[in-house]
Amino acid sequence: MKKLSLALASAAVLLSVSPQAEAEVNPWQQCGIGAMIFPDNGAAAAISNIIWDLGTTAVTSATVSEETCKGASVATAMYINENYEQIETDLAIGEGEHLNAMLDMLAPADRAKAVAELRRSLQIEADLPVVKKAEALYLRAIAFAS
Amino acid sequence: MLKAIRPALFAGLFICLQGFSFGAKATAEVTTPHREFAQQRLWLKLLQYNSDGVSEIKNDGFFFASTGRTDALAELNATLTAFTQQPQNICLFPARHQALVEAKLVEPFNYQHCNEFQEWLGTDSVQSITLVFADGYLKNPASFHGHLFLRIDSNNSGNGNLLDTSLNFGAVVPDDDDPVTYIAKGLFGGYQARYSAQPFYRHNLSYGEVELRNLWDYQLALTAQQAQLLAAHLWELSRTDYQYFFTSKNCAYYVARAIEVVSNNNLVDHNEWTVLPTDIVKRVHQPDQQLVHKISVKQSAQSSFQAQFHQLSQLEQTAVRALVSSPKQTPSSYEALTQAQQKRVLITLSSYYTFLERQQPDDPTPKQNKARVLRALLAFEPGNTLSVSVNSEPPHLSQPANLIRLSYRHYQQQGNAYALTLRPSFYDRLQPSAGKLPNSALSMGEVEIVAIDHKLEVEKIWLLNIEALNVSSTGLAHDGGMSWMIRTGAERRRLRASQPKLSSFVEAGIGKAYKQGHFTPYAMFQGRIHTQEINTDRHNVTLNIRAGVEFDFGQQKGYCEVQQPVSVTSSFNKQSLLTTCAASLFHTNHSDLHVMLSKQNEHVAQLGWSWYF
């Protein structure tokens, strides 16, 4: 029952975005960044790519292959996906470097208003996978920024 | 090499450049200015020449001249020709081009036309270059000595440079290499290595949030022109390959090589046997280099929440503890606080649970507790009201890795002795912890020779020694984790008996530690498998219960501890209690003075002078 309600909540978020946002590439749906590169934990994905220290880890690419998945919106999505926990914390506090970086990527006309809107609509669900929460935040964020 | 540029870009660029007039002719003539420029430091550094006059870059594509790896003038002329005949080459070597423009050997070019280069840079405006040092990490041998990489900083000051491009140097290691192959190939040049660009947020996440390492920023003191030159040179290097050596030709070496393009003096020599990240940070920070503009630190998730906790008042800390103990309730200690105090408590808790969330990704409890805290925070006005100060020491203040120590010892029964200790790497418990994990020790290849009773004896050969007191400074659950130690080699237990044998051993232990101000009490349970320590030994296993306290007052650092060894055969036989107190009385960047008193079946007092280089 709980899973069902979470799924419905997620769907509601996805359906509530503006037409402009819908027109954008959804990197989770179309580029598979959630499943292909970052299963559920951005940290784990980052580790697989970066533990060089004196240089001893395979250097792999975290970029997606399709040309359509290389734009700025996908870069924003990847950033949100990998840093969701910190962005969520910054949003709850109301400021922070991770939140600022996301706003720099989105470049909303009114940053304070965007933060207020995102705080108001922030869904803090411990049981929802990070990938899902990141996707929902991304879609809300680009909707507010557009 | 040219395949890196897409045909469309070729065509577009070529059209854009039809009207350009270059100073060099299609086939460049060897003129005096050319000869002079070809021998200048800048050109040689751009070609990555070492002091033997040979470029360290293996890729043929890095050179336009067939002899470019050893002939700087030939490469200069070939470069001028290549830029003139095929201007798209400028986008592959913008640093060379910038240097040639400054030398008035070619005309300026708008690098904004170089799409791939601009995309790689990640910014329209390179403001500065920062050398980033990640503190040492004891859970991965490759990370013991810390790590270095470079970041190309843009103008966005409020986002912690999270989106800026950082350039990391690393070996290409196949996933299926076993640990023995990995070590052997790493030590003896079995891996290829290359640079790789990533947004800085990935390093912040990996090093700071997961591995809990502080990231030290050394922003280089460069003019805008120099910053652009170095950034462009990093782009040139991003397509090159190298032979990787773990101890010498590693990240620190090649990062230093790159920076030399804008430094007045060399930072590293290709004949050095060991090059460590801390060595390079110290060299970059030397006053005569005038290379460092600003030093700052991005604290790890653990350091950050600990600093926040210690910033709180006693009442606020009590509320934090109460909320951690009973996260589903609202304790009276929290309700009694003002709104501003409550927010400070919640901010600290959010950092604490973020830290736990990273360390225990499979445990849902920290996530659930954090969700409660964040929901509570959303009820407050936006804004962070809890600023923290940093009290860690930057890595350039650390002592160098190589050690020579001379010690005088007086044994109560065996008389006077003189010891010579040699250690190529890295540090012991009595040294300052700048750039290292606090309350830890890491040494490799430590050898000690003792002159005693008119004989010279090998007293100790420690192949590896790691001790890590994983300290809790807040007392909150899971802040700290388990402390541990591992040691292997051979040594004489001279305090156990007067005629000890050189006993080979492997030892490991696990325990707990807690930090209280300047003091860190700890306790460990250790097990040791060894050969005979004295002639009468009938056992090869010794268990050891060890407890002590470390203290750190800056210049004075030390510990006192007691150990109870137990010989294990078919029964358990207690050995005599071993007590030790050791301290560093003072230290400089290159030396210190140690004292030690220790007692088991024999007493010893030691005075040692150490030189680090």
UniProtKB/TrEMBL annotation, chain A:
A Pfam family per the record: DUF3015
Record keywords: Signal
Classification via InterPro entries: DUF3015 (IPR021383)
Endpoints of the signal sequence: 1-23
Official protein name in the record: DUF3015 domain-containing protein
From TrEMBL, chain B:
Domain DUF7840 span(s) in chain numbering: 394-612
Annotated Lnb N-terminal periplasmic domain residues: 116-284
Keyword Signal: yes
A Pfam family recorded for this sequence: DUF7840
Alphabetical UniProt keywords: Signal
Positions of the DUF7843 domain: 36-101
Keyword Signal: yes
Signal peptide (UniProt feature, chain positions): 1-26
Stated name of the protein: Uncharacterized protein
Organism from which the protein derives: Pseudidiomarina woesei
